[in-house]
Each structure stands twice: as structure tokens, then as C-alpha cells.
Automatic annotation (TrEMBL):
Listed transmembrane segments: none
Domain of life: Eukaryota
GO biological process, one term: defense response
Pfam families: NB-ARC, WHD_ROQ1
Stretch forming the signal peptide: none
Protein name: Disease resistance protein (TIR-NBS-LRR class)
Domain NB-ARC per the UniProt entry, residue ranges: 1-147
Source organism (scientific name): Trifolium pratense
Domain Disease resistance protein Roq1-like winged-helix: 219-287
Keyword field: Leucine-rich repeat, Repeat
Listed SUPFAM superfamilies: P-loop containing nucleoside triphosphate hydrolases (SSF52540), Winged helix' DNA-binding domain (SSF46785)
Lineage: Eukaryota, Viridiplantae, Streptophyta, Embryophyta, Tracheophyta
Length: 349
């Protein structure tokens, strides 16, 4: 998942222990650079230049770069940070084997996909933990107040923002900077807006993990969970989604590997609140004004409006409805007539 502080910690490690090695290199934003024109060769060239401290070596192909890296670095004790890698091909081109590097070398890889770490055969995996409340308040305060704790008048409302951020450093930094030097009334307005529409910077960063899902069925599973299945048993959800033809067994495993979904010790599906909001915003932003054009309706009031007004369309794939125990509602079957793609109907109450 993005925004949890992987790159920040990698930079801290690099700066703290880099002097202990014969050579070092920090390759930033590998995912983005790799897709640039000649980006693959550029990364290999930077690695050679940083460590060997010589005139830039021209790399005409990935295979040539691999051979050169193995030849030049096999006797050097090096520290290499590979930041934001997202494919095994990238790792094979930049650090294909322990044998490429001299004794005592350390290679640190940051990624959103734990599966590629297994593929390259890393020695140890560290999964990022979210900040506890005291750490989160301090980080937020440095950005919102330029000091280690909130000012007296903002103490309570600061806790509300920190609770919303759920220990995600990116959200704490972005929201703290945005709220800096604003009035309490503006803070309250921002908090109310966040309940419906996520912050744009946080949304974009988190959405990268969704965009990197190459399988459309996995994306569908993610959106279904974000809207309807948080708090449900994994086995039950698997049966439901398999009934929709979504191959949930492998799909859920991929989402867990990408840290987009969490399965707790009781086999219950969980999701970070901001990741959930990111998924729901993907749906909302495709049709901000017209409820009937959204593919999923997770809000009871929205579903109730669509059914009451009989304005459902073929865009709707799922909806959730909480039926009151008193003042029962009656809906005509005509309300569902145009929902040709409806596959999930969640009823509670």
C-alpha cells in the first residue's frame, strides 16, 4: 500500500549506514522510471555510475547491463536501495542474485507487492506497521502547527483528523499541511467533506496500488469488498464472488499480497479505512452527480432513493439496503427491471 512510509525509512537507512560500504546507490521511483523511454537502461547505468564512481557506462540492452553489473560489483561491498519496484523483471535486471555482489552487501527493496520479493528470494521481509496514536499526533502536528503537539484550541479536532488518517503517514502529512494556519470552522468543513470525498493527493497515491492490478476480475473483487464485504468471513465472501464468476480464491490472495485487503486471525476481511474510501471514490468520481450511473451503491440512502424512484440502470452491479424493522418499505419489482448487470443485493435489518 502506498503512503505508509516505505521510501522514508529506506532513505533513513541509506543515510545512516551508507558510509560503511564501498559503494552505494539509491534508485528512486523504479516503477515510473522503468516505463520511461530507455528507462530500463537508465537505471542500470545509474547503478554502475553511483557505485563505481566513473564516467557513465552506456548500457545498450538489459542483458548487457546485467553482465556488466555482475562483473563490476561481484567483489564490492555495496548498499543498494531499490525504491518502488513492482515487477520481478525489474529486480532481475538490477539485483538478480546474491552472487552479483560482494560479501557484506545489503540490498533493500521497497514494493507494494510482496509476491515479487518471494520471486527474487529475499532473506527477510518487513511489513510496514501503521503509526500508533501518539506518533500520529506528533507527525500531524509538525505539519499542521510546526511543533510536536497541537495548540490548545485545536487539540480535540486534531484527534478527529488523526483518527480519520488511521496512522497513515501520507494522510497525516498531506492533511496537516493543508490545514496549517486555517480556522477551526475550516477544519470542521474539511472533516465533513472527507467523510464523503477523500483528499485528492491521498487518493492519487493510494489508487496507484489499484491501477497496478493487471486483472480486471481482481479489480472487481476489490471494489466489491470495499463496498459490501468488509467485516465478513473470507470463505463466505469467496463463495459469493465465485458465484459471480470472479475467481475469488486467487483474487483475494493477490489483494492480500498487495496489502489492499487484510484477513485477520478470525478469517474476517478487513481494509484500511482510507483504502476503502479510495475504492468507493473510484466509483463515485465516474458519476459524481447521477447515482443511477454508479456501478455500486453501498450507502443505504442512495440505494433507497434509486429503488423508490425506480431510476436504476444497467450500470448498477450491486447495492446494499438496510431495511427498517418498523415502517416497512415496499418496492415494486419494476425498480429492478433496468438493472441488467445487478449481481449483488445485500439486505440487512
Amino acid at each position: 500500500m502506498g503512503g505508509v512510509g516505505k521510501t522514508t525509512i529506506a532513505k533513513a537507512i541509506y543515510n545512516k549506514i551508507g558510509h560503511k560500504f564501498e559503494g552505494r546507490s539509491f534508485l528512486a521511483n523504479i516503477r515510473e522510471v522503468w516505463e520511461e523511454n530507455a528507462g530500463q537502461a537508465k537505471l542500470q547505468e545509474q547503478l554502475l555510475s553511483d557505485i563505481c564512481k566513473e564516467m557513465k557506462t552506456k548500457v545498450p540492452s538489459i542483458e548487457y547491463g546485467i553482465m556488466t553489473l555482475k562483473d563490476r560489483l561481484c567483489h564490492k561491498k555495496v548498499l543498494i536501495i531499490l525504491d518502488d519496484a513492482n515487477t520481478l523483471k525489474q529486480l532481475n535486471a538490477l539485483c538478480g542474485s546474491h552472487k552479483w555482489f560482494g560479501s557484506g552487501s545489503r540490498i533493500v527493496i521497497t514494493t507494494r507487492d510482496i509476491n515479487i520479493l518471494r520471486g527474487i528470494g529475499v532473506n527477510q521481509v518487513y511489513e510496514m506497521q501503521h503509526m500508533d496514536e501518539s506518533e500520529a499526533i506528533e507527525l500531524f502536528s509538525w505539519h499542521a502547527f510546526k511543533q510536536a503537539s497541537p495548540t490548545k484550541d485545536f487539540a480535540e479536532i486534531s484527534i478527529n483528523v488523526v483518527e480519520y488518517s488511521r496512522g497513515l503517514p501520507l494522510a497525516l502529512e498531506v492533511l496537516g499541511s493543508y490545514l496549517f494556519d486555517r480556522e477551526v470552522t475550516e477544519w470542521k468543513s474539511v472533516i465533513e467533506k472527507l467523510k464523503r470525498i477523500p483528499n485528492d493527493q491521498v487518493q492519487k497515491k493510494l489508487k496507484i496500488s489499484y491501477d497496478l492490478l493487471s486483472d480486471d476480475t481482481v479489480k472487481e473483487i476489490f471494489l466489491d469488498i470495499a463496498c459490501f464485504f468488509i467485516g465478513m468471513d473470507r470463505n463466505d465472501v469467496t463463495l459469493i464472488l465465485n458465484g459471480c464468476g470472479l475467481f475469488a480464491g486467487i483474487g483475494l490472495s493477490i489483494l492480500v499480497e498487495r496489502c489492499l485487503v487484510i484477513v485477520d486471525h478470525k478469517n474476517i476481511l478487513r481494509m484500511h479505512d482510507l483504502v476503502r474510501d479510495m475504492g468507493r471514490e473510484i466509483i463515485r468520481e465516474k458519476s459524481p452527480e447521477e447515482l443511477e450511473e454508479r456501478c455500486r451503491l453501498w450507502c443505504h440512502e442512495d440505494a433507497l432513493h434509486i429503488l423508490s424512484e425506480q431510476t436504476g440502470t444497467k450500470a448498477i452491479k450491486g447495492l446494499a439496503l438496510k431495511l427498517p424493522r418498523t415502517n416497512a418499505k415496499c418496492f415494486s419489482s419494476k425498480a429492478f427491471k433496468k438493472m441488467e448487470k445487478l449481481r449483488l443485493l445485500q439486505l440487512a435489518g
